Amino acid sequence: MKLKAVLFSFSVLAYTGFTAQNIQNNPGSNHGNRFEQLGTILPTPNIYRTASGAPGHGYWQNRADYDITAYLDEDKRNLKGSETITYYNNSPDDLDYIWLQLDENEQSTVKNAGFQFPSTLPAASNDQQLKVTDLPEKDNGYGVNLEKVTDASGNPLKYTVNKTMMRIDLPKVLKKGEKLVFKVDWNYNIPNRIKMGGRGGYENFAEDGNDLYTMTQWYPRMCVYSDFHGWQNHQFTGRGEFALVFGNFKVSMNVPADHIIGGTGECKNYDQVLTSDQMSRYRKAESASEPIEIVTLEEAKKAEKNHSKQRKTWNFEANEVRDFAWTSSRKFVWDGMRVTIPENNNKVMAMSFYPKEAYGLYRKYSTKAVAHTIKTYSEFTIPYPYPVAQSVEAANGMEYPMICFNFGRTEKDGTYSEGTKNGMIGVVIHEVGHNFFPMIVNSDERQWSWMDEGLNTFTEYLTEEKWDNKFPSKRGPAWTITDYMKLPKDQLEPIMSNSENIIQFGPNAYSKPATGLNILRETIMGRELFDKAFKTYAKRWAFKHPEPADFFRTMEDASGEDLDWFWRGWFYGTDPVDIAIDKVTVAVPDLNTPPKEAKETKYKVEKPLQNTFEDISKIRNREDKSITFYVDKDKDLQDFYYRYDRGQEKPDAEKEYTVKTEAGIPLDAKDQEKFKNLTGYQIDFVNKGGLVMPIILEFTFEDGTKLYDKSSAQIWRQNEQKVSKTYYFDKKIKSIQLDPMRETADIDTSNNVWNSTGTDTQVSKFQLFKQKQGAGPVRGGANGKVNPMQAAGKKS
């Protein structure tokens, strides 16, 4: 197929434009700031965080190691715990107090953060939802009960509880490089998370009288002290998740003897808590390529019927993790298999725990999805470093190091819908994926939900695509975000918003950042550049505490792409994408009209062409004897100036100087045949939404062929409201489609199409003639006009 599309680039031809629209209007009057650098919006680089987005040579982070014992009282639904924390001050600062998180206080009616939401009278309610208002609110008995806070020697430490945060005042300053060892004993009543909400608690199965426990945010945890925030002690309101410190954990859980436990890290005493048959199956699972039931469905059903009064203690250890979570129930079926991460040859136990109510789905898919997730995320980020990865069916979705809680139950007869299956696979991928963001790349979720949820949702989308190319992903593809982007501005917030202040939390923290990253990968940067930069970010900030600027800067530093316009628009703004084809001007060449004769403008030089005002710089430069002025003696006019300044020559009244415009010559028969089918198309675009994006076009020609072209977003840099682009083809266009693959999140595709029969078309002609040999383009100034001083350099 012979098809030429050129943009103002004829090598042997000259032309005159068909309308004045070929030259963009001076954009100064409508130029915005979309392409300006982020500048002072980002924090100033320093020795801790560099301008490249990498940790600086002075980067530091504190550390906390935990030794915890826990006692689960199933009858009272109470958890009792005791912990020893070793806190390392690696900061350059001396600390006279420290902060801990008491997240379970959010379940208390009197100890919670006190962040209330507006409320209105419902149209209908039920007896479970409706309760008589108590003012003041009565204590519901939930929240952390602190029994003892002491130093390593048992001496009491002074502390203050402020809602979900606890400050411990130190008896002496904790200096740089020192460590602090202290102890906390506590207990709390475990809430019914199905009724009360929240991430941790118990779920009761009325049919068999058993509970399933998810123990999360269950122990007093150290707050992060950092170079960019100091103490991150923002209250826990139930939404914004966690900022946590890396460390090593040793945890012992004493539970009913018929319970099965899954937890962060590795169990160190399976041989003491499992039956011989279960231990044998676990050994087989360690080398299996398909999931093997370690605790079988039959064993789980049998355990449901007999509530043991005996106790067992499970011992777990986990290194270089920021948190610890666990689950306990006699209802669990447990399966596992070995998966090897190719990038680091790490042999990981992928495992799943689930009640019989989820058996039909989880037995088929859960552990395989776990294995697929850690392998795929390892390709796009860093190799999975931990020894286990676990999925627990608990009718919700929440993530912790090496363990996560998901949903996915079948109907009572074991059947399930495609929607339930895909939802279950999607949530397993998402929650297991959180091992990378934020469990390893340890961002501050309390402040920046998108650095956790958005980056993870994006990588989840890549992983779902590699699970099943037809997987019905709801977050990631550009077209899935348009309904959100259409909302009125008063219902939108920038992605760069605090977690607690977001109205549309799901779209804002999950979908929009994930979509933005996918647009960067597929449309703006390309996969190779993006993937390299994204892996660089993950590698730089693995087991560290990144901030948004570290991500933005790394993505640019590792790719060589200036993306400030994208961060500014997509992350800091709320404008949508709505680029429209405003008008198309079609022009055909006029091959028969002879070219106009060359024009000459003649004038006489009465005096040298010099500046009319002697400014201070010129005067001082003449007075400065160290300056030697360069005089171009090779040009006639400059030579005239040189002689005139020295009184050697006066203006010649008879000498004429000429500005001459070169003309072309008519096309010969061969050229006329060559260009008789040429058609020019000027496409005028208007930016209705405000957010700039690349212009992607699909041309469909009258012969049925198609051609694609993409202009980068920088085409808008001098005029952010409207821009034109001209093409020349040797066949006629039938239609033009803007953004044919819906890859820019354009909220209105009705204005993205032009048809040759449409009313928004102007038809004109342009002259086409042959350029004289040796003639070059006339050079002009910013307005395209001839500079008389330049042109006067040659005599007529």
From TrEMBL:
Gene3D superfamilies: Neutral Protease Domain 2. It comes from the Bacteria. The keyword Signal applies. PANTHER family: PROTEASE M1 ZINC METALLOPROTEASE, PUROMYCIN-SENSITIVE AMINOPEPTIDASE-RELATED. This is Peptidase M1 membrane alanine aminopeptidase domain-containing protein. It comes from Chryseobacterium shigense. The keyword Cytoplasm does not apply. GO terms for biological process: peptide catabolic process. InterPro entries: Peptidase_M1_aminopeptidases, Peptidase_M1_dom, Peptidase_M4/M1_CTD_sf. Pfam families: Peptidase_M1. Residues 773-796 are annotated as: Disordered. GO terms for cellular component: cytoplasm; extracellular space; membrane. GO terms for molecular function: metalloaminopeptidase activity; peptide binding; zinc ion binding. Keywords: Signal.
